Amino acid sequence: MSETVKAPEDCATMAEVRAGVDALDRELIELFARRFSYMRAAARIKPDRSMVRDEARKAQVIAQAKAAAFELGVPVGLIGDFWDRLVEASIAYEGEHWELLRR
């Protein structure tokens, strides 16, 4: 039977903190899986390979992430760097799928 995950402010032990982090990590991975499914959809929709990389959209996505980080009080620079890597990985993933769909 799994332990009930407590809110951070209700944690009294490191085991409770770790259980919360582990549960949250699983949720994040599920969200990333959903995000990458949108990359597969984009690969299917975009008619030309040159459309996979869109620098204006990349800048917009990173700016939105940084604004949300600021609003929520988390490190803006860290989120900006992470989102840059996430978007680059997403572009690469989408490009691979674009190629696979057109073989």
Short recap of the structure:
74% of the residues lie in helices and 0% in strands. The chain has 103 residues and is mainly alpha-helical.
What does this structure look like?
- The chain is mainly α and 103 residues long.
- The chain has one domain: Chorismate Mutase Domain, subunit A, CATH 1.20.59.
- The chain contains three helices and no strands.
- It has helices at residues 14-45, 55-72, 76-101.
- Helix 1 crosses helix 3 (76-101) and helix 2 runs antiparallel to helix 3.
- The longest helix is centred in the N-terminal third of the chain and has 32 residues, at 14-45.
- The protein is elongated.
- Residues 8-98 form the Chorismate mutase domain.
- It comes from Sphingomonas ursincola.
- Substrate binds at residues 18, 35, 46, 94.
